[in-house]
Give the backbone structure.
Amino acid sequence: MITRRHLMGSVGAGAALAVTGLKLPFPDDAQAAGAAKEPGLPAGTRSEAVLGALPGKKPLIKLSYRPPNYETPIEYFRTPITPNDAFFVRYHLSDIPEVDANTWKLAIGGDGAEKQAELTFNDLKAMPATEVVAVNQCSGNRRGLFQPHVFGVEWGYGAMGCARWKGVKLKDVLAKAGLKKDVVEIAYGGADGPPFDKTPDFAKSIPSWKALEETTLIAYEMNGAPLPHFNGFPARLIVPGWTGTYWMKHIVSLEARTSPLHNFWMTSAYRVPLGKFPMAARFTTQEAPGATATPITEMVVNSLITSHADGAKVKRGGSLTVGGIAWDGGYGIANVEVSTDGGKTWTAAKLGENLGPYAFRPFSFAFAPKRGANVIVARATNKIGQTQTTELVPNGAGYHHNLPHRVTLNAA
């Protein structure tokens, strides 16, 4: 089993990193800006949520301090690129490192590697660079909306963001050590760690075929700037199309494996009922014979209305444009339909700029509001025919919530 201590030790003496516990505003000196207002969440699920600002961040919806879990308010999704200082923050472990890029090293090895290798930050930046625009979405996004209620971080709509990621192809990094033909998974770990020895260290793996895709990166820039600390500085894994559990922050180690990784985060956590979701890409090496669950992988098709808050007042008559964003697991958005009568009738919306198959795709729709309540609903369909569900698939962790989003606009 990979552990943080093993990972840190395997990098060598130079990889002690200058990793220290980062002083966060927990909780007395937190920059609280008042209660967070997020419509549509069940009573009691967000009673303690406030707007709070972490260092380098705008006020976000604080759901927990240790570890820090901060959600992006919906208004920041009115453009397809999410600003760095408004990008959501998600950690599993509370021992958060402060990493010095000058001493950071990335260890590459494992029984599936031809040799051991090590890269410094300068080595990484000297390699050929590439960019991808991709959505990073927590697997539990919208968990707070799940019915019946499930346990976990009670995210609303904003445990996600879309950025332009710049870095090095993971396959080019792995080539520094060479891969044997019988490699089945690439495992990895970050510099963050558990507060207690009995807490499972956060280590993950992806199938070797996913690791070798052209768009899977180790990124060191986000929207043209160095990665923010709370989004993985100095380098993190980017796995476009797949949920954020695989997007390791503060990455320090890669392990080429000839057998599947078995730990809490792979065998027990982040799994969904087998055969219940429209998954084209499955993680089959993590499926035991007769298994009823499989690791969560690609994001399901989804959309969000961002132009107006639920309950907003508008003028009747004339023309009003509503809009939002749509996204999926990388097949690309084919169309978005909008209903202005609560889902009785549907009309195609206009799609906006296409920044790539893994990015948010804007949409807009103009209509004349009628007096009273106008219930606006949006639903997206991707290019392989998958569309948003009309009924949630029960699962214990509240994953893959993609019911069509609706807001009520009141016209006087």
